Amino acid sequence: MPFVDKFKEAVIGKPHDPLNPETRHNLALVAFLAWIGLGADGLSSACYGPEEAFLALGQYTHFGLYLAAATFLTVFVIALAYNQVIELFPTGGGGYKVATQLLGPRAGLISGSALLVDYVLTIAISIAAGVDALFSLLPPSAQPYKLGSQVVLIIVLIMLNLRGMKESIKVLLPVFLGFFLTHAFLIFYGVVAHSEGLPHLIPDTISETRQLTGNMGWAFAAALFLRAYSLGGGTYTGLEAVSNNVNMLSEPRVKTGRYTMFYMAGSLSFTAGGVILLYLLWNAQHVPHQTLNAVTFGAIIDSWQFDPIISHGLLAVVLLLEAGLLFVAANTGFLGGPTVLANMAVDSWVPRQFRNLSGRLVTQNGIVLMGLGALGILLWTNGDVSVLVVLYSINVFITFSLSLMGLCKHWWVSRYDEDNWKSRLLLSLLGFAVTGGILVVTVVEKFTEGGWLTILITGLLIAVCALVKSHYERVRQQLRKIDALYAPRPHWGEDFPEPPLVPEQPTAIFLIGKNRGLGMYAFKWLNEVFTGHFKNFVFVSVGEVDAESYGGKGALRSLQYQIENSLRYYVNYCHSQGLAATSRAAYGTDVEATLEKLVVDVVSDYPNAVCLGSKLIFDNESWLISWLHNHTAIAMQRRLHLREIQMIVIPIKI
Question: CA-based Rg of the chain, rounded to a whole angstrom?
């Protein structure tokens, strides 16, 4: 094994067999692991979302009780609404597929683009916030090393995810559980320690609210609350992660997805709502260079009257776990982002290479792109959390709003077919009102503080995706014409005699792709140029196991059927012409390596053989157009020439 291959295997592990039924079972996530891998993004928002909302109240902190209740309820409203997404789209795709199938492809493009930017920012802001928490425990002289630490952490997460989602989650499991257990304990203790004030909390809040509305009016009070509630919208980010990645869950997926969503909603609503309640009960005040969580938890720990060194150590543990959870949350971007990219690649919005799986059955190209995108944003913003929060806060609510709008449309259209459509429509409408309201307020409040930049980045991504789609559509139309010219519908049967194959005779090996017209063009070209020379015709094809073919139940079997049916077409045509022909197929994630092995096996049986493949040629071909299409034929020609196997590449102009 070459050194490069050994190093690659050491870093990301040995490849999996995609056709082995046990492989999917070993990779799929049960509800508990999915809660950790996909729920960390939501739970980590308790480190900054409640603080944003509470500080927005200013001196009117008694509204914190309403915020805590609203946060608790909102999490469950959105979670219950997204349970419907899991039921309707059990193969994953979440907000992108909901918008595409229920509102149309343009809405899907907007939702998918917003999700991609959101996942890149999930990685960037989680890493930046986590490093900020860590470096707050270090002396100021360590600050110059902060950005370098962020870069190193992203590279580590890229390597972990290239090994596979299950392995990356197991590494991060202790951090996630440590965060949740310590924060649950602090919330319980913090509330119980001030239990004497709880009976008066509601009456005092109502009294202060009446006094405020009497002095300033109901409109002022409502505007104050809605502004704080909306600016704390970051608390609800991450809830969409389960519906986006249902394909990663173990069977039965819908049931596993519901349990995962319940764990996520329960932990987030308890933590976020509990933290806001602690702010109120412990009279938390903003302290420069400290988070409100650090101030509040520090006050709780100080109340235990330990030695100052011990108290500081305990607070350091809590803050380290917060930083650790933020790193786990960054991992969500590596799980969800590549899935969205793969789904958009299936619909030709992004280059098809993002559908490809590595030998570890992960969307390797998507993982690398997410990591590079996050690195670029961190370097551009110098890891400034205040800037990243503004960029991050808008896109997720674009997806939320479009998804819930799509559900509203679906239940209204299905009202004659569904018995319980009214309750589901009401839940979807409520969720849409909440997320849409938060989106509008956030855009208005944050537009001049960087919100315009988020809209610009997402808009540019939408434009690029539209150009990619337009190119693929033009090529698809040209390929239809080639199909009509060279690969008509079969009018021959399967009852023709099968001439015997003679291994010593000249043999033509055709490398067949998905397009029949290209294969038939190569076949007819060969017989016109070398009339009567070749006596055997062998058609070989590799079924590429990508994100689409590995995403749903029965998808692999469907891929096998398509490959077998395509090869049968060529063989039956040859038999109808009195020509000796056969076919062979193989399946794998690396098309070129699998195809090379398959051709070598065929050549060992038919030593007097020449391979043929076809390649699309474009007018004024740019590097971008070249990147949008694979170059399997050229790559295979080089591989086979190194093995002293002859191959001819036939160009077809588009």
Answer: 29
Report the length, in residues, of the chain.
654
Using CA atoms, how far residue 173 sits from 41, 169, 245, 321, 354, in Å, is: 14, 6, 19, 12, 28
Instruction: Give ∠ CA 475-562-496 in degrees, rounded to 5.
Output: 110
Residue 491's pLDDT band (cuts 50, 70, 90)? low
Per-residue confidence band for 171, with pLDDT thresholds at 50, 70 and 90: low
Q: b or e along 118-127 (b: 16 or more beta carbons within 10 Å of the residue's beta carbon)?
A: bbbbbbbbbb
CB atoms within 10 A of CB 286: 11
Section 217-236 average pLDDT = 75
Q: Are 264 and 242 in contact (CB under 8 A)?
A: yes
The 10s digit of each residue's pLDDT in 588-599 is 877 888 889 999
Q: What whole-number distance in Å separates Cα of residue 481 and Cα of residue 528?
A: 21
Distance (Å, rounded) from C-alpha 582 to C-alpha 587?
A: 18
Structural domains for the chain: 20-384 (1.20.1740), 507-653 (3.40.50.620)
Q: What is the pLDDT of residues 435-467, one digit of tens each?
A: 888 888 878 877 877 778 888 889 999 999 999
Closest CA to 67 of 196, 214, 241, 205: 205
Report pLDDT digits (tens) over 55-88: 878 787 777 788 888 888 888 888 888 888 888 8
**Which one, of 114, 86, 109, 12, lies nearest residue 454 by Cα?**
114
* Separation between Cα atoms, residue 641 and residue 649, nearest integer Å: 12
Task: Using alpha carbons, list the distances in angstroms from residue 369 to 76, 154, 366, 505, 519.
Answer: 33, 12, 5, 48, 33
**Rounded Cα gap, residues 585 and 601, in angstroms:** 11
Say what the pLDDT of residue 169 is: 64
CA gap 257, 594 in Å, rounded:
35
Cα–Cα distance between 489 and 606 in angstroms, integer? 30
Number of Cβ atoms within 10 Å of the Cβ of 629: 18
CA distance 410 to 394: 25
User: Which of 118, 116, 123 lies closest to 371, judged by CA?
Assistant: 123
The pLDDT of residue 605: 92
Closest to 52 measured CA to CA, from 227, 215, 307, 243: 227
Place of tokens 């809660």: 35
Among 62, 67, 75, CA closest to 51: 67
The upper half-sphere exposure of residue 403, i.e. CA atoms within 13 Å in the direction of its Cβ, equals 35
This prediction's pTM: 0.76
296 residue type, one letter: T
What single string gives the DSSP state of each residue in 525-553? HHHHHTTTT--EEEEEEEEE--TTTTTST
- Residue 35 · residue 264 · CB < 8 Å: yes
| DSSP string computed for 369-423 | HHHHHHHHHHHHHTT-HHHHHHHHHHHHHHHHHHHHHHHHHHHHHTTTT-TTHHH
Confidence of residue 405 (pLDDT cuts 50, 70, 90): very high
Give 296-309 pLDDT, tens digit per residue.
Answer: 888 899 889 888 88
Residue with the bigger pLDDT between 523 and 628: it is 523
pLDDT for residue 163 is more than 60:
yes
- Helical H runs in 252-384? 253-281, 292-302, 308-346, 364-381
Mean of the per-residue pLDDT values of the chain: 81
**What's residue 26's pLDDT?**
45
Average the pLDDT over each of 49-53, 170-174, 189-193 and give the range with the smallest value: 170-174
